[in-house]
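Below is a complete specimen:
___
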Amino acid sequence: MPAFPVYRGELPPCLNPFNPRHYLLLAYWVFCRPTALRCYLYQAVPEAYRNFSDSLGDLWVMSRIAACRNLWLMTPILSVVLSLLVTFPISKIWDVPVDCPGVASGVAFGMTFGAVFGATFGVAGGVAGIIAFSAAFGAAFGVAGGVASSIAGIVAFGVAFGTAFGVAGGVAGGVLGSAAFGVAGSVLGGIEFGVAGGVLGGVAFGVAVMGALRLPFYLVYLLPALLSRWRRHHPVAWDELNVLPLPGTTAFLLRQLRQNEQEGLDLLADVTRNPFQRWAVQSALQRHLHDHPQPLRFLFQMLAAPSLDTFVFAPAHKGRWDEVYPVRIALLAELDGRWISGGDERDDRSDRLVYRLTRPLRDTRQTPLTRFAGLLAELLEQGETIEDVAAPFDLARWRAVYLGVQEYPGGAEIVHAFTWMERFLASRSLRDLADASASAAFPPPAEPIRPAVGAALAQLDAVGQEIAVYLAATSRANKQAALLRAADALKELDRYVAEEVPAPERHLLRRIVRQWQSLIIAEGGALGRALDLRPVANPYILNNPAEGERFVGREDILRRLEELWSPDVQAPSVVIYGHRRMGKTSILHNLGRRFGSKTVIVDFNMQRVGRVRDDADLLYQMALAIFDECCAQGISGIDEPRDEEFASGRPYLFSEDEKMLELTARRGVCERTPLPEF
């Protein structure tokens, strides 16, 4: 949802009925900036304003807020003051049959009430509706004031008051605009002519009435408009109710854009809210876009500008918050030469009428840039509905549009992104997905226009590689692992896209993620149902120790033995323990491969020794095993152990034999043989 418009200027938190300056400020809002009235109320009570629905309960809630009470209190006071200021000089100058002071007083009184109530209570939707509503009130009360002195004034007042709502609904909605002609007829020739003329009137005359009521402002604005070529001020910057075109408007807006793009876009957002002046915004934006050295980068800067992510007019009724479109969509559609619907039938008719009346003032040339702006506008209009995979969507129908920007600076990056998003969206199977990802690699430019989009596409390419691994795998376990990695990557990518990638590519990428997730889920379910019921050979080796290539794993134990038996430390004894058939003997049988020829591994099995009489007998058997292993490996200079040497009562002296120690040191074997398993 777009943000509420930000009023650029003074906006007191609460109007003060005893502050004369606040009356001047309110008069300026009424006759020049009605959006400020809604910004003022929204600032005071945002929650109550968002939920306002014209009910008595809502009115009671609003009336309890000081900012609202003071506004409603100051409105009749301001109306009376304006009526007196207008009628006093007229009564002294004019002497005509029609009661001119009464008419002027009614107009001033009615326009003030019409603007305040039309803007604050949501009676009128956009600026055109507010103008129509205030004009209708002004004309109605002017008629009432002009003929109230006669007996027929009672009838005239009733007709005029009813006509006020008729003109508001007619001009804003294009249905009862004929009532405006009735008002005009009342002013010109009496009630009878007004009623007859009301049948022949229409919306066009209602617009003419609005323009006529703004004519005094137009005459005052001519001089500053002409001087805006040399000064930084133009009436379009401070009056959003101006109906008639002013000279120099397009040139002024274009200068603001060229001097400071961000401030220029903020100004365009304000002027866009007046449909009567939107033609100047379109013309200035068209010229600036085509004169820009990097027009595509400027288009995407428009998408990121905060001021363009605001409502094109400030909604006042809670039913309108989801219908009013943001400024950026209006500007992009204007570049494409297209009028877009705001979602409300009454405002649509008035805005469409204004668009047709001002179309001759627009720059209507069509270029690849304007067509691409229209593509962005359509994608933004669809918004989150693109992400719904159940709804049909085809990016291919815009292929000619995005291919048209290839020759512009940065166009290759944009064309690549949209081309592969189209192919990813068209993937209907995992094979299509893997094939599309295999050829999607694209070197990122040095200064990318949409870096987050490029990063997301790179992650999609990584997911496609996992899918390729799945398709190439023959093991069910490997297939499941590849699908799991792809699903986790897509979940992470969805989070990244939602947080980092801007619209409209965010909606396209999230739709791609959802489509791919559905394919992976379906494939994973099919893989889980395809159970292999054939006999599986036992991969484990029982009884005989595993040796050579059959011995795998146990790297942590072997690495720990290397640390304990390194040459520069005293080799400790090690006990390997564990349950049966866990691979203890296999580790011992493969120590020779791990430590090389400089280490003699003696396999001394207590089960093969059998019973021993005493320690001397055990040590004698161990000495024989060492001697036999040394002989088997070609180590000479060691005498064969004799039984009587161990029976002499000092069996441990054998381990201190000088020749054994000398041989051990020369061969690099640890001084003490590690204790084998028990």
About this structure: Residues 548-667 form one domain.
